[in-house]
């Protein structure tokens, strides 16, 4: 009887914590969207800002955000994937595994402003890339490598060892097993890691502040400066340029994250159904 009561109590506590999490999300996103939706329009999305952002739209900011975030993921994903494969399939030393995990943990724990300062010193000044999309993307790529690597590593580690051994027993090489068995089986986890990295890239401000510049124009090259949405939002809020535009920009950011999350989950679900033969 006591066991049943304690189970019910814990079930209530867990349900309440879950409900609180959902409530917090709804309060934050709901408040921003309620404040921002009246100021969102097609014109707001497709026009350039005027008067330092007080008027006009945010089209260059959307382009800069997509440009920087996609480049960062493109740079980070191969390194993360190969690192995760090496740790799971090719590494035979616990010392190397411990060292790499320790380095990944340190990189994960570093404040984003440290990455921003590194990007400023190394990519902007030392390599002379200047304040541009490429400097920001390279810095963001370094920042999200640990996230994608650890998520991919866990996904690969969950693959049944019997499947790998069966592939090898049938005469497949190590690389063939990795390419034909391991990567397709771990793809949902890999996509999840990429999503997390993409989300962090989109929402990052400190790195962007130090590396991308603050151009109000559409970047046509990776060597052009830009102003992603987070930086634009920061400038609007801190300089008091336009409170309505601030809420509208924040609302667009939230909607972008929602769309990416939902689309990725749909793709992952369909892929899992496909490989399960459903």
3D structure, described in words:
The protein is mostly helical and 278 residues long. The chain contains 11 helices and 2 strands; from the N terminus they run H-H-E-E-H-H-H-H-H-H-H-H-H. The chain has helices spanning 2-36, 42-46, 59-90, 94-109, 112-126, 133-157, 161-169, 174-203, 206-211, 229-238, 243-275, and strands spanning 49-50, 55-56. It has a two-stranded antiparallel ribbon. Helix 3 runs antiparallel to helix 8 (174-203), helix 7 runs antiparallel to helix 8 (174-203) and helix 10 (229-238) runs antiparallel to helix 11 (243-275). The two termini are 42 Å apart. The model has no long low-confidence stretch (mean pLDDT 87).
């Amino acid at each position: 009887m006591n066991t049943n009561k304690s189970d019910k109590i814990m079930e209530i506590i867990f349900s309440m914590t879950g409900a609180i999490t959902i409530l917090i999300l709804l309060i934050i996103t709901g408040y921003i969207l309620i404040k921002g939706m009246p100021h969102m329009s097609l014109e707001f999305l497709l026009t350039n800002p005027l008067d330092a952002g007080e008027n006009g739209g945010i089209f260059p900011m959307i382009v800069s955000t997509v440009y920087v975030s996609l480049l960062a993921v493109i740079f980070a994903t191969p390194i993360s994937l190969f690192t995760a494969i090496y740790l799971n399939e090719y590494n035979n030393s616990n010392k190397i595994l411990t060292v790499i995990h320790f380095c990944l943990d340190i990189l994960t724990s570093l404040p984003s402003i440290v990455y921003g300062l590194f990007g400023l010193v190394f990519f902007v000044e030392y390599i002379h890339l200047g304040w541009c999309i490429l400097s920001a993307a390279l810095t963001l790529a370094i920042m999200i490598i640990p996230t994608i690597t650890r998520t991919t590593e866990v996904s690969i580690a969950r693959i049944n060892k019997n499947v790998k051994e069966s592939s090898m027993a049938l005469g497949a090489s190590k690389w063939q097993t990795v390419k034909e068995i391991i990567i397709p089986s771990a793809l949902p986890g890999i996509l999840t890691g990429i999503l997390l990295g993409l989300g962090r890239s989109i929402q990052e401000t400190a790195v962007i502040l130090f590396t991308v510049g603050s151009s109000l124009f559409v970047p046509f090259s990776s060597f052009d400066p830009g102003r992603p949405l987070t930086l634009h939002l920061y400038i609007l809020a801190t300089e008091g340029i336009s409170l309505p535009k601030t809420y509208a920009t924040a609302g667009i950011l939230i909607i972008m994250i929602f769309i990416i999350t939902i689309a990725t989950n749909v793709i992952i679900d369909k892929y899992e159904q496909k490989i399960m033969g459903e």
